[in-house]
Amino acid sequence: MSFWNKKGLMVLCLVFLVLAGCQPVNGFDPLKLFEKEAGVTSYEGSVSLAFDFDVEEAVVTEDSDGLDSYTDYQRNRLEEYRMLNGLQLKLSELKVNTLVGQVSGKGTLAKAQWSIPFAFSIDGERTLVQVEGAKHPIQVKNSAFTNKLPYLFQNVYWMAGTMSASTENGEKERELAKKSLGLLVRNLPNADSLKVEANKEVTVHGAQVTGTQAAIDVTGDQLPGLMRKYARSMTFDDKGLRELADGIYGYLKDLELGDGAYQEWLGDKELSVEGIYGLEKFALSYLSVWGLDDELDTEAMKDTRVHLDLLADEQQIVRQANLAIQLKGEHSLRKGVTSGSVRFAMERWNVNGGVQPNVVAGQDAVDLSSLKTSEALMDQVEPSSALDHFLRDELKLTRKQFSIWLMDPSTLQKMGSRVQEGGYLSNTGYISEGVAYGQVRKITEQLGYKVEWDNDTHTVVVKTGKKEIRFTNESSIAVVDGQEVEMGSPVQFLGGAYFVPARFLVEQLGGEVHWSSKRASELYITKD
User: Fold this and answer.
1) Domains defined along the chain, listed by start
2) Which residues are CB-neighbours of 113 under 8 A, at least 6 positions away?
């Protein structure tokens, strides 16, 4: 099953356990909450997720000051924050049934003036998404998506997902996950800010639900102290660490294949378990003493806040949850992003009832893995539709951006074939008589167009579908759609590749060149 099922809720419970601790308070038992979640097999619900970030727009829009201070990598990361800013995902209808392995949902993805309706369904390992404005449904293999999640998230989802595994291998994973979670939850310290209110009445999907509401607020400067207590407590949990080491040994032993990759190391169980136990002890003791102070600047994080509240009904099943994360400062975010927030809300009903997800028709679906470029993806979108504008104007899907790194031409000449197509220096250029040069093929292809060699005329031909540009070696004249145009400097053949004045080629292809004297070795190229 994919992460759209109850794994998401179990991860939320894990977050709550980490922040609140596991000891029962006023009848509210977070550990029982997590255990109950493993028994949920179906439900209907709604989910919303919203992002807001304050980004230095001068950097994102290539202001000269921004170019002075930021590398190409940093600008790309800032662009991601700009795209997330104001983005809202709302699932008004979510249906989950883990017994039949199906999930479905309907909702909207919104940013600025655009709101894009969509529907999706998950059946086993296949996800189908139908978006208003798309010519065909999109098919995604779930493993292809989850493999792109950050490594930590992959492991958290694995722990949550294996709590409901039913296959033989899944049962072994489930036992290992239980031992891991047992160690985690037994040692969690309770935060002072945990508040619990019994007999709380809330409205869920138009119906009154009575239960226990728990809320917690934690600031960033409190986290290091909580985590040190947490790591220290686990360090001295000998029984839990030995049980976990034994579980890890059994899991690895079962994974042993015909090639005997683990055979030698796992041949002596007693020795192997003791070794795993020792590694656990070392890692936790390191974190409890040294590992956190170097990573977390408590003064810088004091304005970072996390709020989480959960409403569990009388059966200790989560029916409503809200998570708000307020971030402030470059330490919590990154250079160029001054503050931000992430808000998540969910509620669910008809828990363990007769839920039947709606499957999206996929007869003419297009596999996402076959769409290798943004242009191929945009070919699946109806022109001038809201989706088209959303992808182009808000998510900047068709935007091209890259850097050309300038070096001395004599050095470039010595590099030889390494500057050619496929070479690791193919994004290099040079300055000759005050003019910045870039490689014709590299610039053209990164802007989404094609380059050909005309053997009859011995010219390099750039084609966009609407324009044709011809370059002749050692000539300063380019032929654009049959008309001669003076470039000001000649074409040069260097290191096995053709180079032309970079600004001329980029601007002919509809792009822009950005340069700063403070970063004189870099040309930053963009095209919307």
Assistant:
1) 1-220+302-377 (no CATH), 400-527 (3.30.457.10)
2) none
